[in-house]
Amino acid sequence: MFSARLFSFFLTLFVISCAVSARPLWSTRALKPRQSTLNVATCTDPATQLVEHDCNVALLGLGGGIAGTIEFLRVNSSTTSATSGTCTVTATAVDGGETIDISKGRLEGHGSTNGGFDNLLTACGPSPGSMVIGGGANPTGNIQIAISAAA
Ligand SMILES: *[C@@H]1O[C@H](CO)[C@@H](O)[C@H](O)[C@H]1NC(C)=O
Fold it and tell me: Any idea of the CA torsion for 115, 121, 122, 126, to the nearest 10 degrees?
């Protein structure tokens, strides 16, 4: 009788410890990079007004230049920035991204729910802030676009 109880006690203990250690959901989730919310502008300094044209020129200066017929911003680095006049624009691979590979259309993202430079400008004006654009990073991940005052 006693040993049967003891056995059942240890069996219960064993089952509980199995249940506790077998939690693959938590461990695989922890390995996945956190995903940023897309197309949400964070305006960090509305009092600082930059010149919009400077920000547009800075954007087109990213990665050695993406003006004219160049359709992609491809940078073998996790971050790149360019400055023109009052404005610095920075693109950074986030959410697991290691390098940048994004089309110009997606980077500008005018009116897209996927985010983009134009949407950031619409939300913050030519003032400091950032937004995450879906996709555009290798091997996986998203691109954060940021506007800041030129140093
Ligand atoms: C990218 O950069 C890494 C290290 O900085 C280098 O090893 C690799 O060859 C580069 N790839 C290309 C395609 O330039």
Answer: 160
Centre of ligand 1 to C-alpha 54, Å, is: 31
The pLDDT tens digits for 58-105 are 999 999 999 999 999 999 999 999 999 999 999 999 999 999 999 999
pTM of the model: 0.80
Q: Where are the alpha helices (DSSP H) in the chain?
A: 2-21, 24-31, 52-60, 104-108, 117-124
**What SS3 class is residue 61?**
coil
Cα(18) to ligand 1 centroid in Å equals 45
Q: How far is the CA of 100 from the centre of ligand 1 (A)?
A: 12
What's the confidence (pLDDT) of residue 35? 93
Q: Which one-letter amino acid corresponds to residue 33?
A: P
